[in-house]
Design brief:
60s Ribosomal Protein L30, Chain: A, 3 domains, alpha/beta, five-stranded mixed sheet, six-stranded mixed sheet, 12% strand, 496 residues
């Protein structure tokens, strides 16, 4: 065949996976260049994995490294370079499904045997594209390359002695090759870890040291339903368990945005009490809860609600200190890292939109995903930040495919300034979002803009953190039969 399979994947999949991404664009492109031949090598050796990945809507790296989960983190650290491993994992996750799609098209069939045959046909290009460190990785997964095939040549006519020597060498060569691979594997991974050990003492400790406590952050809306939720933990299994608890407690389809890597501790203090605490939080309006280390912080728009909630929670978390606005304000206030919050929220929104099945697009799913992002307008500005445009582009593409999806865009401000001015500004910001979506060829009939100004706070306007939370854009499902707005809440959609 005339095509180079790796070059084809770099061209077709990168355009899909990296569409709209601006951060770490070069680094992610280089990582994909290394990932494609590794993935194809694995698929070639494991035809059953192909079928398993095909049967999943959103296959993940975890599915590929299922036989050796610990190796996934080492692989990510190797391939990520300067990119946060969480961001890189998200990009690689999103590349798997379209990669399989390209292979199916080129093979002319979705059958694993056809895809394996395609890879074998292009094996020279695939093996040549493997990065130098990939041999050890593949060996650790129990996968060998085809390089050793060159050792099996047709035997020459030789003397008996020579024949005996070849028999011995034929027996020993695979053993020697195995020993060399094992030594190489150990050397490479020791070298990777040794780099960190050799750094000056002034540098940060290795990421595997779990230097940050696990963290749970969530907030509720005016009706006590879940509006935002973020999980940070080094224990992926526990995250899955807690996700299911949160979805069940709040009857929420999406659950929390997740960041899982070795930077975070694997356990929460008093984590057995988390479900009970969340049941107490459910239904309480405008709560912001942060569970981190030995502190549980509670903020509400009404300080009395926070105090009452804290009194119920404290007996459940005997090893933690429960803080409310009054107690936290008495000490040094903890400022929100707005850049980190915005980045995490926007990343989760992109991921949630990417996971929506294009053949089953629901308004609720789009609204829920869009509400994960943070549209952080500059002061008095209606200009949409560049970071949010790619998210809105994703939503627009889905809405164009599903004309039945109709959303209301709600603008909110903090309480700084005049109420009338704030309401006008919130209306203009909501309209700016609608106008942007319409420019992406969304039918104007699918959208409406409403500005509420400072009328519906979700946090205390007396603090900078509270003001930041109150300055927001929300998306709600519009009931096309009556024209009234329905809130995206714990019951799915509910009449306002």
């Amino acid at each position: 065949m005339n095509i180079n399979l790796i070059d084809l994947l770099k061209k077709k999949v990168s355009a899909i996976v990296l569409e709209g991404e601006t951060e770490y664009l070069s680094e992610k492109s280089q990582a994909l260049t290394s990932f494609f031949p590794i993935l194809l090598s694995i698929l070639k050796s494991q035809p059953k994995l192909i079928e398993s990945l095909q049967n999943q809507l959103n296959p993940r790296l975890t599915d590929i490294f299922i036989t050796n989960p610990a190796l996934k983190q080492q692989f990510l650290e190797q391939i990520s370079g300067t990119v946060p491993t969480g961001a890189m994992e998200s990009t690689l996750n999103r590349s798997i499904a379209p990669t399989l799609g390209v292979l199916e098209i080129e093979a002319g069939s979705a059958e694993p045997s056809a895809i394996v045959h395609l890879i074998e046909t292009h094996w020279s290009a695939v093996s040549n594209a493997l990065p130098p460190w990939a041999l050890a990785l593949l060996s650790a997964l129990g996968i060998g390359t085809a390089v050793e095939h060159t050792l099996h040549q047709a035997p020459e006519i030789t003397s008996y002695k020579e024949a005996e020597e070849k028999k011995k060498s034929g027996f020993l060569l695979p053993l020697i090759a195995f020993v060399i691979l094992a030594v190489l594997l150990a050397f490479i991974f020791r070298a990777c870890s040794g780099q960190k050990e050799a750094e000056p003492a002034s540098t940060l400790p290795a990421q595997t040291a779990s230097s940050e406590p696990a963290k749970l952050q969530l907030s509720t809306g005016a009706a006590g339903y879940l509006t935002t939720c973020q999980l940070y933990s080094g224990n992926a299994n526990y995250i899955n368990i807690l996700q299911q608890e949160i979805k069940q407690i709040f009857n929420h389809t999406m659950g929390c945005g997740v960041e899982s890597n070795a930077n975070y501790h694997t356990e929460f203090i008093d984590q057995d009490a988390i479900p009970s605490v969340l049941k107490l939080v459910k239904g309480v309006p405008n709560v912001s809860l942060t569970w981190m280390g030995n502190q549980l912080s509670i903020q509400t728009a009404n300080p009395t609600d926070a105090q009452q909630l804290a009194a119920k929670i404290q007996p459940l978390v005997k090893n933690m200190t429960v803080l409310t606005q009054a107690s936290t304000n008495a000490a040094t206030p903890v400022a929100v890292d707005s850049h980190a919050v915005i980045s995490t929220g926007n990343s989760n929104a992109e991921k949630a939109l990417a996971e929506i099945n294009p053949d089953n697009i629901r308004a609720l799913d789009i609204a829920t995903a869009l509400n994960m992002q943070i549209i952080n307008f500059d002061t008095a500005s209606t200009h949409i930040p560049e970071a949010n445009k790619s998210i809105l582009d994703q939503a627009a593409a889905l809405m164009k495919r599903a004309p039945q999806v109709k959303l209301t865009v709600k603008g909110h401000t903090d309480a700084v300034g005049h109420a009338a001015t704030n309401k006008t500004l919130s209306q203009k910001r909501a309209q700016a979002v609608v106008d942007y979506l319409v420019k992406q060829v969304v039918d104007p009939a699918q959208l409406q803009a409403v500005g509420y100004g400072q009328e519906q706070p979700i946090a205390d306007n007396s603090t900078a953190n509270g003001q930041f939370k109150n300055r927001r854009i929300e998306f709600e499902v519009l009931n096309t039969e009556t024209g009234v707005v329905r809130e995206v809440n714990e019951e799915g959609i509910k009449k306002q």
